[in-house]
Structure formats: C-alpha cells, structure tokens
C-alpha cells in the first residue's frame, strides 16, 4: 500500500489527479491501454514485457524530473524504448520538438502509439552512433528494454542503420540540442569516442546513463569527452548523469 501511495504522489507531478487514479488502478489490473479521462491522452503498455517497469522508472523514479535552467525547445530521446521518456518530456515541455530514436521495431510501433496524442514528436528507427554504420540487434537479457547493437559490414546481413546527432541537427534545422537524453545500452561509448566536435558544443543539457557492466570503461569515455568542454556534472538521478553546458545555460535560477 505504501508503494502505491508513493507512486500516486509521484504521478501527480505529471498527470491530473483523476488521471493518476485511473493509471494506478488499471496498472494493478495489467491493462494494456489506459485512457486518461481528464487530459484525453492514452498510455499503451504490453503484458509480459518491461513496459510497466519502464513506465514506473520514469514517472515514479523521476529520473528526468528535475528543475532545468532552461525551457527546452529541442529534445533528443536516444534509446526511447516505448516512448515513455518522450511522453514525460512532452507533458512537461509541451512546446518542445522531440526526436525519439529506437532500434527495435516493436518498440518503435509502441513509441508511435504512445506519442500519437502529442504534436512535434517524430521517431527514427535507427541506432544512434558516431558515424554511418550498420548493425545486428541483440537481446542478451531477453528483455524489451535492453537491446544492443553489434557493428557489421554493409555487405553483411544487418538489421538496422545508424543515425548521427549531426544528421539530426541538420535534418531538423536545429541550431542546438537543448536536452540530449541517452540510454543506449553501451553504445554511448562509441558516441563519445570520436566525431563529437560538432554536436557536443551545441548541446545544452545531457542526461546519460552509462553501462560499464556491458561495455568496460564506458563511463570513463563519456565523462572524459564531456570534460573537454565547459560542462558541469550537475547531479545524478538513479544512475543517470545530468550535465549542463555552462557556455549555453546559466545556473542563476539555483542561487
């Protein structure tokens, strides 16, 4: 009961109180479709997957719910899974444009369903990487929220192609990435190893989860590269590192 009360209180940070009641009750009954009576939005989940766990991680764990020094207009959700982080960002920043990136096709279908009620949210069924590449997709943990990629040659049989942050900026005609959320199961090591010189200084806020258990010294590579620029590690939330680019944002609101 105590856990449900805490969950309810955390949901109220993002949803109307009546919508929260509906969410809590229908999750107990393992509903795969939750229609919210007040906001008229819909949440889609799948039984026998990690969808409920992921929903609670974002809306109960509050891993992205912190006071930011800016109101972001451009957001990249890399490793978007089924779209709950994108949903969170659209609720909190309704005027933001979001590009959600996800490698697994059934997850991509879920992102489209979970973001269909929100404007300016697009989905890229590609793998975020530091160069043009081709990959096989693996599922080492037999889960729906921890797919990984293995780089292969173009001449080999491959599952998916890459997309780079420079391509996203160019395609969407952005001047900056205001929030870059990264949860890509170890691929962040390659992302921060090279070819970051254009997009990284244009990024205002980074929210990155590192995966040293999967890729050794992953966090070391990420932090070492970010430290080359004028970023500050502002805080951490449930294993997610939150960086602010002091060349682009001010910390005056925290004084």
What does this structure look like?
The protein is of the alpha/beta class and 255 residues long. The chain folds into 2 domains: 1-44, no CATH class; 50-254, 3-Layer(aba) Sandwich (Rossmann fold). Helix content is 28%, strand content 24%. The protein contains 8 helices and 13 strands. The strands form 3 sheets. The chain has a 7-stranded mixed beta sheet, covered by helices on one side. Strands 6-9-7-8 form a 4-stranded mixed beta sheet. Strand 3 (74-78), helix 4 (84-92) and strand 4 form a beta-alpha-beta unit. Helix 1 (2-11) crosses helix 2. The chain starts with a helix and ends in a 10-residue tail after the last strand.
Keywords:
single chain; 2 domains; Rossmann fold; four-stranded mixed beta sheet; 255 residues; 8 helices; seven-stranded mixed beta sheet; globular; alpha/beta
